[in-house]
Write a structure and sequence with these properties.
It is a single chain. The protein is α+β, with helices and mostly antiparallel strands. The protein has one domain: Alpha-Beta Plaits (2-Layer Sandwich), CATH 3.30.70. The protein has two helices and four strands; from the N terminus they run βαββαβ. It has a four-stranded antiparallel sheet with strand order 2-3-1-4, covered by helices on one side. β2 and β3 form a beta hairpin. The chain is globular and about 45 Å long.
Length: 105
């Protein structure tokens, strides 16, 4: 049985200046994930995040994407490249992305 990982990606609803992220950027992101892996889960209930950068406190509203994919080096490398794309697309210093081993029953 193949091993799987769950990738969770948190995307900001607003840029750091408070302006809303354009809806097209979310659709583009969801399309890329669907084309690469065939599907994804989108949690549209905003999560709240607080973080500090250079003594400035930022508060985020975040959307969570969940993708369960085979645990391969090719998939991991795709996510690493995609993370850089998302940082630029959403104008972020960092995009929180985690990979968690899972067992699919």
């Amino acid at each position: 049985m193949p091993l799987f990982k769950r990738y969770e990606v948190l995307l900001p609803v607003r840029y750091n200046d408070g302006m809303p992220v354009e809806e097209e950027k979310f659709w583009q992101t969801w399309l890329e994930a669907r084309q690469q892996f065939g599907g994804l889960t989108i949690d549209l209930h905003p999560l709240r995040g607080i973080w500090v950068h250079e003594e400035t406190v930022y508060e985020d509203e975040l959307i969570r994407l969940v993708l369960d994919v085979e645990d391969t080096s090719e998939n991991r490398n795709w996510f690493l490249r995609w993370k850089e794309t998302l940082k630029e697309r959403f104008r972020q210093l960092e995009i929180w992305m985690v990979a968690i081993p899972i067992e699919v029953l």
